[in-house]
Each structure stands twice: as C-alpha cells, then as structure tokens.
Amino acid sequence: MTMGKPTGFLEHTRALPGKLPVEVRKQHYREFVALYSEKELNQQASRCMNCGVPFCHSGCPLGNVIPEFNDAVYDGNWQEAYDILAATNNFPEFTGRICPAPCESACVLGINQPPVAIEEIEKHIIEIAFEKGYVLPRKNIARTGKKVAVIGSGPAGLAAAAQLNHAGHWVTVFERDDAAGGLLRYGIPDFKLEKSVIDRRIALLEEEGIVFRYNAHVGVNVSISALLREYNAIVLAGGATVPRDLDVAGRKLNGVHFAMEYLKQSNKRVAGKDPLEGCTGVVSSGAEETEICAAGKNVVVIGGGDTGSDCVGTANRQGAASVLQFELLPEPPASRTEAMPWPTYPMLMKTTSSHEEGCERKFAVATKAFIGDEKGNLKALRVVSLEWTITETGKPAQFVEIPGSERKIPCELALLAVGFLHPEHDGLLKELEIDLDRQGNVKATEKNYQTSIAKIFTAGDMRHGQSLVVWAISEGRECARKVDEYLMGHSVLETKDASVLKEMMG
C-alpha cells in the first residue's frame, strides 16, 4: 500500500502527548496524559513509512494491521481506522494505555529514528471511536445453543468471552472479585487506567449478551462439578496470581507485603470501597486484617518491573516520606546494544511516569534481611551490592556480593514486586486434578489450548505464566477459536474478523 504521506517520517519526529505537572498529578489518582491535537495526531500517523515489510505486525502478538490504521488516521477516516483496529484487538482502550508496545520495538523506522508512536495512536483511535459512536454492541447474533463458562475476567478471560459470544455461544463469566477486570481492575492503578474505561467495555459486553457473575469464586462458593454438568465447555483464565516471595530473615515482620496486596487495597480505597473487604488471593502474614498505607513511611519497592513502578506512583500519592526501588539485576543500557539487535524487544533502561514523580533507584542490590523493632514492626532492610558477570550475548549470568557493601536502609514499608510464579493450586485446580506443567501452570496443548480434561480449556497467564496484557488478549482470542472448533467442528472466528480486514484493505 502507499501511505497517505510517504515523506512524513522525514518531516516529523516522534512526539508524545503532554502530561500534567508532577506536583499536580500526585494530588489525585486520575489519568494525567493529555490527547494529541488533531494536527499532532495527523503528524504522528504520517510518520508510518511505506516500509515494504511491516515488522510491527510480527512485533504485535495480536497481529494488529498497524500501517493500515495509521494511514486511515492520517486521512481522517475514523470509522475505517476503528474497524481495522477492532478486527484484531477486542480492547484497544486497554492496550493503548498499559501495553509496553512491542510493536514499536519492531517498527522499521526505529532502526535509526524514534519509532512511530503506535500505542498512543491506538488509544486515540478507540477514544475517538467511542466519542463518535462507532463502538456499538454486536447485536443479532445467531445463537448456537452451546453454553460456555469463562473463569476469570482479566484480559484473557474477557477476550475469550467476547469472541465466544461473537461466535454465537451463550457465555457466562465467573469472577471471584466484586467487579470485572482482574489485574486491570485491582492491579493497575487508576492513574494508568481509570476504572470507568473498564466499566464502559463491560457494559457493552453485557449488552451483547454476556452474563457476569461476581463474588463467584469457583472451587470455593461455586461448584466446579456443577459447571461441568451445566456448560458445554469451560475456559480457565484465572491468571498467575501466586507471587514470588523473598525468603530472608524477618520476612514475617509487620510492614513487609506483596505488591499486589498493596495495589489492590489502594485501588479499592480509590473506588470508595473497604480496602480489606473481599481481598482474595495470596497474602502476607496478617495482611487479611491490616490496612497497608505508605503515608509518612520510608518505602522500599523490591523489584524493578511495571508492578514495582505502580507501587512507586501509589506510594508517592499516599504521601510516603521517601521511595526507594531496588533491582537485583544490573542497570540496563539506555539504547540497543549488539546483543539487542532490531527488531527484537530490547531490555533497556525504562523511566516511567511514576519514577518521574519521585523515586531513588538502585540496581544490582540484594536484600539480605528485614530488620524489626521490639514490637515486630519493620524498621530497616539489610542489603548488599552485587557484581554481575555478563555473557557474550549481553545477559547477566551470575553475581557475587561486593565485600564491604553490606548496609542498613531505613524502611517501614517494604513491597515485594518480584514477579509471579503460577496460578493458585488450592481449590479449583486441585479439585479438578488437572495436569500442570513443570512451572506449575495449567498444562495445555500449544495447538488447541485444551487441558487434560477434554471440555476444559485455558488461556493467558494461567496457561503460560506471567506476561503482557497484549499477550493475554491474544491468548483469549486464540483459545476462543479452539473452543468454537471443539463445540461446532469448525470455527467461524477464523473468517469473521478476517473478512472485515479484507473489505477494509480492498
């Protein structure tokens, strides 16, 4: 195809929308990133090259048809831009806000210039589509009479439910919390994803005929045996919710918590709910009865990923006395090295908006012990600096402690953000006696997402472990296609979305 402005990438550089000043946005939990002006959006879309081989397609797990929707944006064809985007992505309002954008790492322009701002353009397409009334519930669906239960309402479960409903099956989503969204709801802070964005989408899915059952913890207050009898197929999409722990002295002190406990309580508080009510999942000792708040405390976030960054932003808004973030690994480079060639996803130094709001960051640091006072409350951490051996491929291989670097760090609240292991085994999975893989995830064939129980399928983090929101949506879509094949002998989902793209692209 010929792009609307073939020279756009020569005339304009990458520019992102403005943000509210740090001191202003720290006073609230609302989103603070502005939208492009019409001119700015047109310029950013024009940077998409006529590159011949659009590597951004392969960089995106959903296979979003990125040059085509960029061209439609440049031409102001908003209905076309939305139709192209929605054909491959059920929830661009989520990915446009919280996806790390692997598509941008694969952008051909990124070889020697800043890549196209694909994620922001995606967010603008869906928000403009909502504003113009293009996003409508799918109606007049020909029903098959088949019933499918989806357990878990995170991005994988929602995508599977949306696609299965689109195929004509009756879908019920079971969510153990009091509202839909999974980690989107109670793991991602509102300043990155306001919950009205989730509610808007759930309302559409309900209009399409999907039923949501809340406070429905399958394996606890909902019988899996009853679901097996009532439904023709079941999709397990509960996520990898067991956090990785840090087994060092003092771990059980008051003030040491998993990051997700902290974020969930904060999100409930922001929503005007009791932060302790219905707090399901793995918790630290005593956390069921303890409110966690950073106000006036020296906070240490252990773990350098996005969850850790979310803790930083939340602690700053709660009025922490100081915020320090530790990472076990060495500081990553600021730009690609020979070990991270284009178009691979590079592990680069990432400074988030939360870091901009106030945070000291330390790399190659290990926590040796949590130190408490006479009442059992955390008062400090004992840490040590590390020296890493780097392989020829640029990856950290092993470390040794640097002699004489051990020291104490004042700390009254330590948040463990060191990743997740696998889904919870107690309850549902043990009752099913379903096969697990070596990592403790639900075992399923790569080809058809089917578990060791024929009518049960699985998708998302529950199947392959902790990953990105865009991968979760992709998994949910693919799993839905396999469930449709299982129920009907073939899948209409193979052709429905493809036909939209074919029409759009002539």
In short:
With 506 residues, the chain is α/β, with parallel strands linked by helices. It folds into three domains: 128 residues, Orthogonal Bundle (Fumarate Reductase Iron-sulfur Protein, Chain B, domain 2); 176 residues, 3-Layer(bba) Sandwich (FAD/NAD(P)-binding domain); 172 residues, FAD/NAD(P)-binding domain (3-Layer(bba) Sandwich).
What tags apply to this protein structure?
single chain, alpha/beta, Fumarate Reductase Iron-sulfur Protein, Chain B, domain 2, FAD/NAD(P)-binding domain, five-stranded parallel beta sheet, 20 helices, globular
Structural class: alpha/beta
Q: CATH homologous superfamily name of the largest domain?
A: FAD/NAD(P)-binding domain
Largest sheet: 5 strands, parallel
Task: Give the terminus-to-terminus CA distance.
Answer: 11 Å
Separate helix tally: 20
* Number of E strands: 16
Domain count: the total is 3
Low-confidence stretches: none
Strand content: 15-25%
- Specify the overall morphology: globular
Top CATH class of the largest domain:
Alpha Beta
Strand order of the largest sheet: 3-2-1-4-16
Q: Nearest-angstrom radius of gyration?
A: 23 Å
What CATH architecture of the largest domain would you give? 3-Layer(bba) Sandwich
Helix coverage percent of residues?
25-40%
The mean pLDDT is 93
**CATH fold description of the largest domain:** FAD/NAD(P)-binding domain
